[in-house]
Amino acid sequence: MDKLITSVEDKSAGVGPGMAFATELLKYDPELIVGLIPCAKWDTTIQQWQKDLSEDTLYGSCLKRVYAASPMGEIKGILFFQGESDALNPKADPSRRYFPNQWADKFVTLVKDFRQDLGKPELPVVFAQIGTTTFKTKLSNWETVKAQQETVQLPPTEMITTDDLALQDKVHFTTESYLIIGKRFAKKFCKLTQR
Q: What are the residues whose beta carbons fall under 8 Å from the beta carbon of 135, sequence distance 6 or more?
């Protein structure tokens, strides 16, 4: 008996910078084997990424994926792109905790925790600063989060900017912009790893 296979459109699916990052890395080193371990989760705060080893948390789930992939290769770095939710006006959702004024401290703690738990104290990290928005009333802490991101001082960690890239809505980037972000991630990663 033949099986009928149907597909349902995932309207929440989007493109990210991961493949563009990998493709760009191969331009620097064609012999490189690049594996990506996606752990992104839409609409998360920096607080939700803080260390908690339960597999039901963002941190714990991410570590589980890294450990599962470890037989196939060695983790060489972290790409991080988060901050939009921390820019929300706290009155928008009083049930969540936002820390726009502590974003940098929480990010530094997160990186240090990942490095410790992975046994890699010098693991390179490249993160993206949030770009622009056309939704300033709902995202009243946007500039605060951006300013916090600029203050991060943690070697070997680098930040890329995204202010100059086109948006597809009030916060999210176009596909072309995400491809550029991936290339910027690769350039900074290569700088950190001296490729």
A: 170, 171
